Amino acid sequence: MKILLILLSTSLLTLHANRPNVIIFMTDDQGYGDLGCHGNPVIQTPNLDQLHAESIRLTDFHVSPFCTPTRASLMTGRYPARTGAYRTTSGRSNLHHDEISIAQYFAKAGYQTGMMGKWHLGDNAPCRPQDKGFNDVVWHKGGGIGQAPDHYGNNYFDDTYERYRDGKTTLEKFDGYCTDVFFEESIRFVEENKDNPFLLYISTNAPHSPYWVDEKWADVYRDVVKWKHGAEFYGMISNLDYNLGLLRKKLKDLNLSNDTILIFMTDNGTAKGGRERPNTEGFHGFSAGMRGQKSTIFEGGHRVPFFIHYPAGGFSGGHDRKQLAAHIDILPTLAEICEVSTGDTFLDGQSFLSVLQNENAPACRDHVVVQHHGGPWMRAEPQPFAFSNVIKGPWRLHNGEILYHVGDEHWEGPDVAKQHPEVVAELRKLYEKFWASVSPRMTPVCLDLGNPAENPTTLCSQDWYLRVGNPPWNFGEVNQLKKITGPWHVQVKEAGKYRITLRQFPEVANKPLRAVRAGIKIAGLEREQPVQAGAKSAVFELDLPKGKTTLETYLYNQKDEMGGAYFTEVELL
Length: 573
Description:
Blueprint: H1 2-18, E1 21-27, H2 46-54, E2 56-58, E3 61-62, H3 67-76, H4 80-83, H5 102-108, E4 112-118, E5 136-140, E6 160-165, E7 168-173, H6 178-192, E8 198-203, H7 215-218, H8 230-253, E9 260-266, H9 299-302, E10 306-309, E11 319-321, E12 325-326, H10 330-338, H11 353-357, E13 368-371, E14 388-392, E15 395-398, E16 402-405, H12 421-438, E17 447-449, E18 457-460, H13 475-479, E19 488-492, E20 496-503, E21 517-522, E22 525-530, E23 538-544, E24 547-556, E25 562-563, E26 567-572
């Protein structure tokens, strides 16, 4: 029996030793043209340029046109509309509870899993990174540092982030700039797991707004980059580049470079990189010839860099692959390379391993659908064909009606739908099949109340399920006390007595309510009470039945104007 156990243990160690490590490095709001290696004549990205020179590059790689949906697809291998996380706010940035992440698959296969930085797929159980398979986490809540769900007072420097490690969740204050911190923690994770196969997801908040960075990084660009916050934006990217250099040096020092899959990508098109204006003098940004930016369905909104470096697997040498691929394809590709099973879970993605191995291999897919599923300026509920782009070969079908042919210059235009009705009909059919498949999953995701993994639960206004408009999404808007409220979709995990505490500001802010009357509505129950002068919260206690329901809060000022409690704590007593 002992011999059998020894043999089994030895075989597992051998298996793990042969499995590559995986590092996925994704930046926030950096576009295809915000890289020196892609032709930008101003930006300084020597380490990314070197990685580009040493990698296999997918040049027709597409993501969603903004943050959350791309992250949802990266994590699950499924279209964002299928996952529940298809917008950035309004209760639509949380993963369905039954969605399985790449970290869960890899952890089950024996990998150590780490995540540093931006999650943006749910701030509450069971949607947090630690609920989705990551066992070593340092992260900020919400869609960016300084947004409403984040720790009050964070401003990119010396911030407080949530750490999850050894099964425990704590708040920890860190010294230094946010990107530096996330890379320092990433390097710590690599050092601690150098003898084990690991999956590390580095997802920086930078270069997302509000464009805060140490002046030394922005100063480099002051004389050339003249648009508002452009120098800061480029400076944030240069800082990212510097940190990538430190990480790669650590991998080399630990003799891990050869056996580590290193991926670089971005979550959508540029937010601040400007664009080319060929008929004007001076530098006005670089778009690599693409039309559109973040939040658009034009090429510049969703065609992004994708570099993959893995010398032991033959993914090196600086070679392009022109075959179509997308964010949904990353999980199945890595699972195939690392021999990690995804079981019988349906994936929209397809492995592009054969393309990496052979430049002449057929693409893993013949088309992909990109759709912007709403925002504060759009319909809250997605509509078929609205803000959609069906990509197949050189064709781009926008909104089911406008057809572009994209050549080597990547520019979309003019509309050629009338000249190619057969192409329009074909792409419309592809979209209709897509919509019929994903739209039934575009339903509210409930946040748990009374979950032992998070009790009390602090709900934030960003997850109000609004039909129109946007909730207060950063500290500045919270301070304005906007007269708006909305329902949280929640699931009472256990029947019992609950304490519900209403606040306009997080408890750590230590600010009084600017209200004279408070009310709540949950599970068919309604309660209202006066607010004492100087009180920092309004507290209700009531018995709740088990099951799904909605929670809505109301705070009235002296003029009887009503807004919601942006921060509401719910505790099972």
